[in-house]
Amino acid sequence: MFKQIASKVHEVRPLIHCITNYVSANDCANVLLACGASPIMADDVHEVEEITASAQALVLNLGTPNESKFISMLKAGQKANNLGIPVIFDPVGIGASQFRKDLAKTLLKEVSFSVIRGNASEITTLATWQNHSSCIDTNALKRSSYDMLIELAKNLSEKLGSIIVISGEEDIISSPHITYRVFHGHPAMSTITGTGCMLTSLIGAYCGANPTQLLQATLAATLAMGLSGEQAYSKLCQIQGGTGSMHILLIDAISLLDFSKVEGGLNYELYEKLS
Amino acid sequence: MFKQIASKVHEVRPLIHCITNYVSANDCANVLLACGASPIMADDVHEVEEITASAQALVLNLGTPNESKFISMLKAGQKANNLGIPVIFDPVGIGASQFRKDLAKTLLKEVSFSVIRGNASEITTLATWQNHSSCIDTNALKRSSYDMLIELAKNLSEKLGSIIVISGEEDIISSPHITYRVFHGHPAMSTITGTGCMLTSLIGAYCGANPTQLLQATLAATLAMGLSGEQAYSKLCQIQGGTGSMHILLIDAISLLDFSKVEGGLNYELYEKLS
Amino acid sequence: MFKQIASKVHEVRPLIHCITNYVSANDCANVLLACGASPIMADDVHEVEEITASAQALVLNLGTPNESKFISMLKAGQKANNLGIPVIFDPVGIGASQFRKDLAKTLLKEVSFSVIRGNASEITTLATWQNHSSCIDTNALKRSSYDMLIELAKNLSEKLGSIIVISGEEDIISSPHITYRVFHGHPAMSTITGTGCMLTSLIGAYCGANPTQLLQATLAATLAMGLSGEQAYSKLCQIQGGTGSMHILLIDAISLLDFSKVEGGLNYELYEKLS
Fold first, then answer.
1. Which residues of B touch C23 (CB under 8 A)?
2. What domain range includes position B62?
3. Looking at the complex, does the CB of residue B250 fall below 8 Å from at least one CB of chain C?
4. In-domain check, residue C102
5. What order of strands is seen across the sheet that includes strand B163-167?
């Protein structure tokens, strides 16, 4: 199934419209090309609706925000909603300022998102509107906290009608009724900037090419990123490289990923909460 | 001859002023340094004219456009025209929105360009003002279409007085009277973002260092990019890398290129249309 | 001592707020992660003060300037001053336009900087307000000029109350009373864009984690960059790579740097001017 979803990206070559930050824009474009999609970055209000209308998915990323980009996100998001195009939201560093929280609040009110992806602190901030860390990339969490996070993701998913992805040491993917846990990835991924943004773009590509199975597409993209991180780290050890090489090897792995050749199988599970 | 043109870049170390998009700005700066030029990225209206005045070439890139950057392009372009500094235009994704088409139309009216480079769909849009693809990086074209493209490039070159470069599987470089076809490059180049922008920057560097022979400089830059793509791909196969490595190897190859050591000779031709 | 200062970055994991250019933003974020710090790039006036307030250092970079980013720099800088957070300034390309000189003049008047880092021409422009090169990356200077530069750095440091770093073939680090010369680094570092910006970010990280010993932290960061450049170049020769690989290997080296394992010792000196 995952192989089919991933192959669909190469077949359909979906155009993914990204309104995003300038820090990871190049990486996101390269990740989209690596998985078979076609990126277009555009954030001016005069063109975003037209570009969204010709895209297969829209990715809104809250990094390096400003008001004019926000207006563009709003317009593009509403256009996508009207046309039934999947919209993916990445609340980058939402806990870092009241400004980001205000923008995110308005976006959630005015735009319906197919998928929202963040790390534990970002999604927790989105669910509670209280800060849980000023740090963007807090990933390590205690075991017990994961059960709470899963509940939070489920509840948020129900409330917003969006698939919620919390990425970290363990990834959580939740629709209102089904929750998956993914156990792939490697801590070295958090030593480079933009891995979260890259995963969000990947989800955009997978959803854009598979619009009728968004949950499976989101799960597949999350698995793809985790597997790519592992493969990148494994090569990194061979060449004894540092974080610069990890960056390149991660994009390499995304472009070389073949679900039918994953050794050791996929490590994820359907989560069933006793109730 | 090509060796001389390329060496001139290292000798002169031309300052290339780029008003460009944030997706490939880092790559363009690195490509300029790799070929021996010196990049300066600047897009604020308060400084672009002064910076253009001290540069040896100006590169205008339509990616991630907005109105204030457009005003800067206009002012910098006119300043360059007044001072006789070559101006290179890259109509990135011009077919993607009416906004980009409008900006490009005004630029073409107000600024005289030495060279315009795009892919087949971009240049066709520029010539006909009709969309030919919503996709920025459509490269594959049927054999017969190339003859039509060559005619289109020639006619556009005559109309605008600019050298027209259509890059793709086969590259077309046309002045009003002379047309070249270049058969270098590799499809793997289109698996990374910004290769078009990088070629445009390279043309800027070659033209900036060789302002009296713009057609030969443009041809040399196009050959340099194609050869670098081939050399990068050849190394990529050795290391069994993915698109992340292709990205790095391409910049490597540009920095290591030596026209006097190209094995197998240069594969390009002067195109003579029977008439 | 340097080992301790560098380790402190990994321990404290300081949040470094960068208001910076879009050309090297990705590299700066990756360098910050590579040395153990946590980057946040944010330049909108609605959030910069709040973000600076939660950061351990603020880095202001004059590349690709515009007025709204300038206002943000001013507000963030003053907030940092009020809270005693170190502020680092990189006057990128200050000689390139009157606009950049005006912005820098106002910043120097309104914000107190802990450290200012530039190349010889940038710092000379800052000291004399006359242009000394239109080229951003002029690095090669004659031996005799270094003595003049050291005097200039010392005087500027006294005048502004900031640590002055002039990076180049030889690096100069000067407080009003103490001046160091650092003899590490490699010319290949100037073949990639943003190495200056990366060093400035590194200084931000080291100062952010060691706020009570800013001069030693700045010296350590400069040594770290120089050593990393040498190690990167040494690996580059092994793989016979070009400037693309140099870029990656430099970030690798920063992430792998261990002051306790530097072969051949550190090559720097306390400069004593006879007087």
1. 25-26, 29, 41
2. 2-271
3. yes
4. yes
5. B38-41, B15-19, B57-61, B87-90, B115-119, B163-167, B171-174, B179-182, B268-271
Whichever domain contains C80, its CATH number is: 3.40.1190.20
Burial of A30 (0-12, 13-18, 19+ CB in 10 A): buried
* pLDDT one-digit tens code per residue, A113-132: 999 999 999 999 999 997 66
**Closest Cα in chain A, distance from residue C273 (Å):** 40
By CA distance, what is B36's nearest residue in C?
C191
Place of tokens 């490269």: B139
Q: Supply the pLDDT for residue B130.
A: 78
Least CB–CB distance from A191: residue in C47, C54, C255: C255
ipTM of this complex: 0.94
CA nearest to B247 within chain C:
C244
Q: How far apart are the first and last CA of chain C?
A: 30
pLDDT digits (tens, 9 = 90+) for C219-231: 999 999 999 999 9
Binding-site residue ranges of A: 41, 117, 167, 194
Instruction: Write down the pTM of the prediction.
Output: 0.96
Among A22, A44, A255, select the one facing B191 at the smallest CB separation: A255
Q: Chain C closest CA to A160's CA: distance in Å?
A: 26
Q: Measure the CA–CA gap between A165 and A151, rounded to whole angstroms.
A: 12
- The answer to whether the CB of C206 falls within 8 A of the CB of C6 is yes
pLDDT reported for residue B143: 59
Q: Is residue C239 part of a domain?
A: no
Domain tally, chain C: 1
